TrEMBL record:
The lineage of its organism: Bacteria, Bacillati, Actinomycetota, Actinomycetes, Acidothermales. It comes from Acidothermus cellulolyticus (strain ATCC 43068 / DSM 8971 / 11B). InterPro entries: Biofilm_reg_signaling, EAL_dom, EAL_sf, GGDEF_dom, Nucleotide_cyclase, PAS, PAS-like_dom_sf, Rev_trsase/Diguanyl_cyclase. Residues 237-370 form the GGDEF domain. This is Diguanylate cyclase/phosphodiesterase. PANTHER family: BIOFILM ARCHITECTURE MAINTENANCE PROTEIN MBAA (PTHR44757:SF2), DIGUANYLATE CYCLASE DGCP (PTHR44757). CDD domains: EAL (cd01948), GGDEF (cd01949), PAS (cd00130). SUPFAM superfamilies: EAL domain-like, Nucleotide cyclase, PYP-like sensor domain (PAS domain). Pfam families: EAL (PF00563), GGDEF (PF00990), PAS_8 (PF13188).
């Protein structure tokens, strides 16, 4: 060994030999001239046996081209793969620097990064796997893989591995800084997946559930019905779908306020959920409509019993802001009794049955029957015909006189809409008026009725033999009254016809005072300011709150025909009618008795002091062009 080499060895002394990092002195040919114990241990060869051997012997052949011996002023740093004497491959960071100026020796530092690289690769693999996790099973698998990495790379037991991943501080303190960093890297991957899964779960819940009640929404309900139908087809019992509509909820919501209305909807959802089994599904379809899916029924007829339990659950009032709120529910029931039914059909059938329940009295349960589907198809066809008729103006107005009972004189006439259908004949109003309401066609149709009735009134003027203040009554629906610009429509129709406003009477049922009360009051006051008179139709059959008569601008009460029909009954029936007549007189309101059909009824009404009436006994409805000829010019 040269003097320079001896000098270098002497300079490093015991530190050179005992340092934990592998170190070696190499000559310009790449042969080991001296090595420390750490390097000998790194390659698995005794230190003395390494002297004179070439470094490239321990470097993998495909990495040897990196071993550039052109050492200049800058250290050479490379990561190479080396082979131990036992054939084990290790990853080493190899740093070469010039050891002396006089005769070039190379000082090599060899840092084993095999475990470090293995950990990086394991983390990369864990990260790649984490991107594939889409469900709870995948998340559990990820946790298992993370725990196994800690066991493999840190040599901990599974329990202690789980503890450090869970953030156990007492175990973490025992680890080296590098090991703690490794554990934190693994934990960050797991935490990121859990955070992503929570976000995905939250997004799914938002997309699949109703935000107000927490129930599943319409889309999820339909999917569950489809799945249940498939299971029923495979012989796994019967199922039923119930559609539930809360009767009169809008009225309650408007009176209590939307905040209390929302709370009431949540209470309804909880009560319905408590009625059914945990395996069944309660959904909020929208607004005040709910759906229930019941599976695993032994027989289809069990469905009606479930529907009745739901209906009866509403008999107990709800407590809202210290008040008891009474509600009822209209329920439609459809079952999977017929094989091969499509999920969409089942939902539609339940909806049809629910509509039937509402239309036939509310607070009822109706089981679907095929006739409802046929009726729905006919209704759709009738609506199309109605739409075409509205566009073509294919209607006419008949008029039923309003008669002064004491004299027989006509004081006015009510316009009655008639639809002469080209193939169906004369369509009854009860068949098409509700259809016009539901479809919104009542708005253009109602405007046509208003303008046409006023035109007829103008045409009658020179031919009327009765009073010149002969009024025309036109029925107005809630839908029309709520339409923006309705007052303008009335104003324009009066101006176009030239009819004095006081001749026009707008008839409406008591329901207009419930729906959108504040808006209704403003519209009615605007109509009163025009000079138009307001008549409350079918008085006594609806809410009949006397406060409405005080707060709303009403001029005329039209006593419902049910009161007239009961006049020949008990003394109590006559007493009720007498009280209503007296009420009208006290409030300075005109009162018209509807549905007078017998002379006995007429005589009793005269005795009770009723001044005006309508009915077949007095005069049947007649075409507009014949009315002037029938109008009496003197008392009958």
């Amino acid at each position: 060994m040269t003097a320079d080499l001896h000098a270098i060895e002497a300079r490093f002394g015991e530190t050179y030999r005992r340092v934990a990092i592998g170190m070696a002195l190499l000559d310009v040919a790449g042969r080991f001239r001296a090595v420390n114990d750490a390097f000998a241990e790194l390659v698995g060869v005794e230190a003395d046996a390494l002297i004179g051997s070439e470094e490239t012997t321990f470097i993998r052949p495909d990495d040897r081209h990196w071993a550039d011996w052109g050492i200049g002023g800058e250290p050479q740093r490379l990561q190479v793969r080396m082979c131990r004497a036992d054939g084990t491959e290790i990853h080493v960071i190899r740093i070469l620097t010039a050891a002396a100026d006089e005769e070039p020796f190379v000082l090599g530092h060899y840092i084993d990064v095999t475990e470090h690289n293995a950990r990086l690769a394991a983390l990369a693999e864990l990260g790649e796997f984490s991107q594939t996790v889409t469900d709870d099973a995948g998340a559990a698998d990820l946790v298992d893989r993370a725990r196994l990495l800690v066991v493999q790379h840190l040599g901990l037991s599974e329990d202690r591995a789980a503890a450090v991943l869970g953030g156990a501080g007492d175990v973490l303190e025992l680890l080296t800084a590098e090991d703690r960093s490794f554990v934190r890297s693994i934990s960050s991957v797991v935490c990121a997946v859990h955070a992503r899964r929570r976000a995905e779960t939250a997004r799914y819940h938002l997309a699949s559930h109703d935000a107000l009640t927490g129930l599943v929404n319409r889309t999820t309900f339909a999917a569950r019905v489809a799945d249940a139908v498939g299971q029923a087809e495979r012989g796994r019992g019967h199922l039923c779908v119930l559609m539930v509509d809360i009767d009169g909820f809008k009225r309650v919501n408007d009176s209590l306020g939307h905040l209390h209305g929302d709370r009431l909807l949540r209470d309804i959802a909880q009560r319905m959920t408590a009625i059914v089994r945990p395996t069944d599904t309660v959904a909020r379809i929208g607004g005040d409509e709910f759906g229930v899916l019941v599976t695993g029924l032994a027989a289809p007829n069990e469905a009606e019993a479930i529907a009745l339990r739901l209906r009866d659950a509403f008999r107990t009032p709800f407590a809202v802001d210290g008040r008891s709120v009474h509600l009822s529910a209209s329920i439609g029931v459809a079952t999977s009794a017929s094989r091969g039914i499509e999920p969409a059909e089942l939902l539609a059938d339940a909806d049809l049955a629910m509509t039937e329940a509402k239309n036939t009295g509310k607070g009822r349960c109706v089981v679907f029957r095929p006739a409802l589907r046929r009726a729905a198809a006919q209704r759709i066809a009738l609506e199309e015909d109605l739409r075409a008729a509205v566009e073509a103006g294919a209607f006419r107005l008949d008029f039923q006189p309003i008669v002064e009972l004491a004299t027989g004189m006509w004081v006015g006439a009510e316009a009655l809409l008639r639809w002469p259908h080209p193939t169906r004949g004369l369509v009854p109003p009860l068949d098409f008026i509700p259809l016009a309401e539901d479809s919104g066609l009542v708005v253009p149709l109602g405007e046509w009725v208003l303008r046409t009735a006023l035109q007829h009134r103008v045409a009658w003027t020179p031919r009327l033999h009765c009073r010149q203040d002969f009024c025309v009554s036109v029925n107005v629906s809630v839908r029309q009254l709520a339409e923006p610009g309705f007052v303008d429509v009335v104003t324009d129709a009066l101006a176009a016809s030239g009819v004095p406003p006081e001749v026009l009477v707008l008839e409406m049922t008591e329901s207009v005072f419930i729906d959108e009360e504040a808006g209704t009051l403003a519209v009615l006051r605007a109509l009163r300011d025009l000079g138009v008179r307001i008549a409350l139709d079918d008085f006594g059959t609806g809410y009949s709150a006397l406060s409405y008569l005080r707060r709303f601008p009403v001029d005329i009460l039209k006593l419902d025909r049910s009161f007239i029909a009961g006049l020949l009954g008990t003394a109590q029936d006559q007493a009720v009618t007498r009280a209503v007549i007296g009420l009208a007189q006290q409030l300075d309101l005109d009162l018209v008795a509807e549905g007078i059909e017998t002379y006995d009824q007429l005589e009793i009404l005269r005795q009770l002091g009723c001044r005006l009436g309508q009915g077949f006994l007095l005069q049947k409805p007649m075409p507009a062009d014949t009315l002037p000829a029938h109008c009496p010019s003197s008392a009958s």
